[in-house]
Structures are given as C-alpha cells and as structure tokens.
Amino acid sequence: MTHYIYKAGKAGLAPILLLHSTGGDEEQLLPLAQQIAPESPVLSIRGRVAENGVNRYFRLRGQGFTKENFDLVSLAEESKWLADEIVKLADFYQLDSEKFTVIGYSNGANVALYMNLAGIFKFDKIIAFHAMQLTEMEQIAQSNSKIFLTNAENDSIVSVENFNGLLADLSKTGSQTEIFKTNAGHQLTESEVNAAKDWLHG
User: What CA–CA distance (Å, rounded) separates 164 from 129?
Assistant: First the structure.
C-alpha cells in the first residue's frame, strides 16, 4: 500500500511533488507547498522504507548519513518504485508527469536529485533543501531541469566536500542550478523557503 496525499489545485498549474525528510511522512511538507505554490495541485508520497519506525526513501547499511552507509541497491530499487508510483498517480489524477516541480527536504531532496542524475525520472523543476551526493556515479543522464538548492557550510550532515561533489555531478547534466546559502546547519529556515518561492515564480 502506498501512503500518499493528493490535493487538487488550479487547472493549468504545474503539479507539486513533495518528498519528505528522514522520519517524515506525506503530511510533513504540506505547509511548504502552501507557502511556495498555494494554488498548485499537490502530490505527496511517503517513502516505503521504514527502519525502526523511521520513514525513508531507501535503506541504510549502518549508522550515520554517509555515502559508505547508503544501500545503493535499495536506492536504485526504491527510486524505480517511486518513479512508477509518480506515473501511476499522475495518470489517475490527470496530472502532467513531465511538469512536476519537486519540493524535497534532506532524504527526499536526495532521492529526487539521484533520480534525475540516474535518468530514472526527469523532473521539470527541483527545489532541494539540504541535499547531498549519495554516490559517485559513473554515468550521469542529461537533463534540462531547473534546480534550486539550499546549503549551509555548517551543515552537520552535508559536508562542503560532499555538496561540491553533488554540484559537480549536476553540472554534467545540463541542468540550470541556483544555490541559496544559509548558516543554520541542516535546519529548514523561513528565508530559504521564501527564496525558493521567489525562484519558482520568478
């Protein structure tokens, strides 16, 4: 069973896809969608991996959010599952799956960018709050996605080196990227949410 929420929006507006952070669920980012794109249709899908009761979009192999601990087999499998669910639900609710704007935070932002980089699903736009590079990829898919990223140099989870690796990967795709810097660690701030809204509607 897929846990998700769908909220109808104004006809003709691009749909929003919400992907939660570690431990979140399909309700976590609904307030962000209301702030950033209040009139858009919204689809929010919960990751189907639950480790010790904590929802995620792929499994870990150990403690800590480092590339060494990410289960890359699970990442590939769960990304394919998520892509299939997006297409199925978009078809059911008559949404244009090629026009999705993703709003993802941490784990959700990570999987959205990975799906784009791997060519599993190409999103039109991605708002990635505090994303990180999950793995060093040998093959990177081309994309014309527009991507807004937020990052803090004092982020306790995403190191400067890791984030620079992510930017290097994205630069190979042909995507257009914009970066908003904060100094609040891995926390989501009002300033970056407002900046994301300005970026999306600008």
Answer: 15
